[in-house]
């Protein structure tokens, strides 16, 4: 007990050490000295089971110690000193501890969330849209951020993070000291800036994940995740020990503080495959300080380690998109106890839940899911584009069930310890949501700007500049714009334009061989029914077709006019582009992934050199501006939408 206590606020003077010194000074007995000379191992008080058991036995054997248990004034003074030193600069404490007793009325929250938008460019090649709330500004004014606490990171976590940077070769301990590394503990300016924004607990959408920065992005949000977990758990452990000491005073008063949610799960991480989960958990187990052992580590490695082998004939982009274990149906619980990290624990009792959207719906019923997600304070969604191609509806339903009020409460739950914003059904405003994606998506934009994300700290959107994917191809590239008065009628307007204006162009043409790329299976079904009713010759390559070579071979042999293929089929299987030897390439709608457009554009350019009638046709309307900018660039995309012309050629 010679060490000071590690708390979310920093180091607190250890009362056990003070009392032990007083006891020894009053009694010169060697036996008394020997009894009170216990020294705990080199772990902090809360994560050392041996120290806890020693304290219990010490209380039983030393009446002198029992008589001098710290009273309420002692703890208040100790915490007051700590407030003056650290708490004023710790945003986590202001947000999740001090501000939970605010009057949670509709009027109050409408004032807190009212905000203004700012737009600036930082760093290069990015658009940054910042939504700053009055609540965030008022909270920042209360804080006293010093150089020592500007990262908002636990001190022992900082040392583990520096060790990780040394291990991956970013820092060399022979050239720099640890003190010098702490001055700039990040691999790049973007990582530094992004971690600071995450630590301000804003909702963040970073849509510029590329091959060069995907590892740093995973490390950044995992570091933030571990930092939040440590502060939350240490605050709970600190309060638990405080309650025990207060109850021993037998004064009739109880130590009451609100530090719990409805369920233990405070952090939710959604990923598309087990491979990403394996990477995250491996880094978590490394970064957590003072961990004595990791339970079920071998079972976790066997279950989540790399198993699937990607074909050597796939492109480099495909291999980066689908590395390692590609199972998309799992739920993993991670629990932090005193000095022990437990993996593969039941999600209902876990501190962290890492899962796929499909896994959550397979594991829980609707009511169980609402309970499981009722107390989430930090939600991270990585590889949002891949999750969108899997099943977007699952993700939307998960956000509809996040932080919902509970009609029934477990009998084991101490309601007096539940934070006020959970009881007042305001926990959604205290939840931070982080999206990581490759580019902008209309569905993701609707979700991020929608009512499901209403964080009182504001929002931050980081989008890349769109230069487009069209280069110096010679094949005619035509963009036809159709009129649409409402975004709810886009599908009907597109279908009408395609059947009335596009398909008649191939009625009298022999060997047309048209490849139609549709965004979803529902569009394919609709076009398939129309072609069947009008006796058109066509073949379909649906989502579940892994090898379309036979279908394409039959289409060429039988002179089929139309071949329909979905964007999802290409995304998950990506057949060789050489198989698609067509005369016309029609994008029924602008694809979500510009890489797909680029692949077929290059294939069309090859076919154009063999057949000059080959061309690429793309349909769009004014509501497709985001996807259009990804294809032709921001300047041409906005020009196409604003122009009164209906057809454009590049």
UniProtKB/TrEMBL annotation:
One of its GO terms (molecular function) is U3 snoRNA binding. Residues 25-42 have a biased composition (Polar residues). The keyword Nucleus applies. GO terms for biological process: maturation of SSU-rRNA from tricistronic rRNA transcript (SSU-rRNA, 5.8S rRNA, LSU-rRNA). One of its GO terms (cellular component) is small-subunit processome. Residues 201-459 form the UTP25 NTP hydrolase-like domain. Keywords: Nucleus. It is found in: Nucleus, Nucleolus. Residues 22-45 are annotated as: Disordered. Residues 474-649 form the UTP25 C-terminal domain. Belongs to the UTP25 family. PANTHER family: ORF PROTEIN-RELATED (PTHR12933), U3 SMALL NUCLEOLAR RNA-ASSOCIATED PROTEIN 25 HOMOLOG (PTHR12933:SF0). This is U3 small nucleolar RNA-associated protein 25. It comes from Percolomonas cosmopolitus.
């Amino acid at each position: 007990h010679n060490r000071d206590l590690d708390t979310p606020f920093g180091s607190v003077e250890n009362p056990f050490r003070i009392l032990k010194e007083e006891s020894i000074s009053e009694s010169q007995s060697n036996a008394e000295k020997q009894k009170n000379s216990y020294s705990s191992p080199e772990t902090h008080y809360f994560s050392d089971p041996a120290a806890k058991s020693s304290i219990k036995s010490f209380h039983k054997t030393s009446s002198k110690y029992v008589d001098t248990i710290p009273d309420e004034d002692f703890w208040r003074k100790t915490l007051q000193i700590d407030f003056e030193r650290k708490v004023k600069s710790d945003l986590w404490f202001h947000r999740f501890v001090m501000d939970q007793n605010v009057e949670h009325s509709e009027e109050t929250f409408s004032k807190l969330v009212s905000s203004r938008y700012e737009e600036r460019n930082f760093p290069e090649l990015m658009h940054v849209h910042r939504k700053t709330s009055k609540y965030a500004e008022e909270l920042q004014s209360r804080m006293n951020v010093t150089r020592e606490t500007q990262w908002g990171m636990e001190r022992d976590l900082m040392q583990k993070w520096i060790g990780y940077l040394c291990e991956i070769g970013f820092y060399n301990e022979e050239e720099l000291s640890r003190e010098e590394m702490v001055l700039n503990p990040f691999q790049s300016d973007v990582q530094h800036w992004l971690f600071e924004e995450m630590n301000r607990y804003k909702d963040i959408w970073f849509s510029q994940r590329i091959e060069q920065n995907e590892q740093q992005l995973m490390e950044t949000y995992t570091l933030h995740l571990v930092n939040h977990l440590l502060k939350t758990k240490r605050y709970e452990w600190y309060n638990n020990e405080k309650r025990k000491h207060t109850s021993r005073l037998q004064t009739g008063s109880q130590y009451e503080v609100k530090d719990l949610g409805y369920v233990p799960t405070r952090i939710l991480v959604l990923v598309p495959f087990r491979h990403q989960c394996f990477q995250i958990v491996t880094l978590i187990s490394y970064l957590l300080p003072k961990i004595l052992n990791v339970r079920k580590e071998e079972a976790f490695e066997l279950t989540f380690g790399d198993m699937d082998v990607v074909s050597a004939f796939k492109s480099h982009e495909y291999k980066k998109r689908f590395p390692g274990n590609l199972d998309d149906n799992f739920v993993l619980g991670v629990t932090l106890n005193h000095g022990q990290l437990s993996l593969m624990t039941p999600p209902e009792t876990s501190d962290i839940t890492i899962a796929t959207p499909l896994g959550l719906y397979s594991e829980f019923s609707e009511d169980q899911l609402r309970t499981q997600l009722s107390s989430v304070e930090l939600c991270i969604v990585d590889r949002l584009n891949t999750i969108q191609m899997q099943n977007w509806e699952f993700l939307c339903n998960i956000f509809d069930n996040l932080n919902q009020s509970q009609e029934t409460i477990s009998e084991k739950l101490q309601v007096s310890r539940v934070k006020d914003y959970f009881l007042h059904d305001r926990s959604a405003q205290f939840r931070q949501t982080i999206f990581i994606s490759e580019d902008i998506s209309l569905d993701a934009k609707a979700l991020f700007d929608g009512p499901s994300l209403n964080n009182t700290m504001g929002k931050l959107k980081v989008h890349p500049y769109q230069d487009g994917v069209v280069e110096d191809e010679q094949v005619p590239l035509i963009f036809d714009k159709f009129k649409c008065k409402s975004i709810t009628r886009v599908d009907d307007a597109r279908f009408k334009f395609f059947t009335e204006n596009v398909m008649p162009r191939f009625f009298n043409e022999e060997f047309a061989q048209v490849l139609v790329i549709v965004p979803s299976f529902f569009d394919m079904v609709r076009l398939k029914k129309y072609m069947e009713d009008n006796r058109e010759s066509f073949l379909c390559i649906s989502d579940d077709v892994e090898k379309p070579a036979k279908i394409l071979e039959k289409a060429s042999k039988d002179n089929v006019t139309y071949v329909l293929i979905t964007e999802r089929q290409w995304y998950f299987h990506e057949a060789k582009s050489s198989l698609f030897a067509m005369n016309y390439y029609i994008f029924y709608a602008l694809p979500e992934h510009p890489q797909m457009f680029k692949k077929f554009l290059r294939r069309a350019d090859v076919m154009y050199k063999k057949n000059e009638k080959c061309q690429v046709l793309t349909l769009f309307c004014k509501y497709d501006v985001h996807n259009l900018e990804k294809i032709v660039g921001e300047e041409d995309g906005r020009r196409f939408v604003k122009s009164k012309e209906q057809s454009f050629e590049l």
